[in-house]
Every structure is written in C-alpha cells, then in structure tokens.
Write a structure and sequence with these properties.
The protein is mainly β. The chain has one domain: Gamma-B Crystallin, domain 1, CATH 2.60.20. It has one helix and ten strands, in the order H-E-E-E-E-E-E-E-E-E-E. The protein has a three-stranded antiparallel β-sheet, with no helix packed on it. The protein has a three-stranded antiparallel β-sheet with strand order 9-8-10, with no helix packed on it. It has a two-stranded parallel ribbon with strand order 1-4.
Length: 149
Amino acid sequence: MLSPSGTRHALLLVLSSTLVMSACQKSLPTAPSEAAEGLIVYEHANFSGKSAYVTVDIPDLEEFSGPCSKTETVTLPNGSTVTNSTESWDNCISSVRLAPGWRAILYGDDKYRGGHIEVTSNIADLKNVEGSCEEGFNDCVSSIRLFKP
C-alpha cells in the first residue's frame, strides 16, 4: 500500500504522462477542396465533417490529433482511478477522397496490420466496404499507406 505522498507521486506521474502524450500528438494538414496528391480523410460519410490531408504513409493514426475521442481509465496501485482522454484520427474515418492516379491501402490496425482495403477511387461511405469492423471499414482505420502514380 502506498503512503499518501507515494499516492500523490503516482498520480502526478500518470497526469504528467497524460500531458506529455497530449502534447506529443501531431496534426495533419487541413484538407484542400480537391487533392492534388495523396488522400483526404473525412470524419463522416459523404465527405463531411472534419477533414485532413494525408500525403505520406501513417503507421499509427492515434499519433495525430483529430475529431474522435478515446477515453481510457488507469487504475493506480492504491485502487483509485484516473481517466485519460485523447482526440485523434484513429478509428475515425468514414469517407475518403483520393487524388487522381494515386492508390492507398487502409489498415484496421496500426503499423499496417490487420484487415485492409485498397482504395483506387473516392469512397463516400466506408460502411459499404466489407471490412473487419461492425460497419465495414467505417471508423475502423488505424494506419494508411499511399502509393504515388
């Protein structure tokens, strides 16, 4: 069992880690109306909601701040809990626009693993694409590979 000062130190460590994680998140560029290269990802179907411009491979979308929240609860050694909330693009993509001539592979897991789909044209609703999640590939993308023409 931790002493009161040990509990405070453990809590400060968790809170410090949370702040560092939040401060380390990168941002994707704001999406243009038309993509000259790469891929535009959208929060909602039919190319709506928040969007971002992807022009390089991304092994883990959780590293990029975005519109979807993920909440995790950490239990401290003394039994108390701390809730951590992050906002990212991980499992947050519902439609995509692809630049002419480009290809992309969307993966269900980070580091280009898990179920995947090849994108060769715009997809207005990832629910309609067979995938490993409940609703096709909707809100089920964790990493992206891009291929130039």
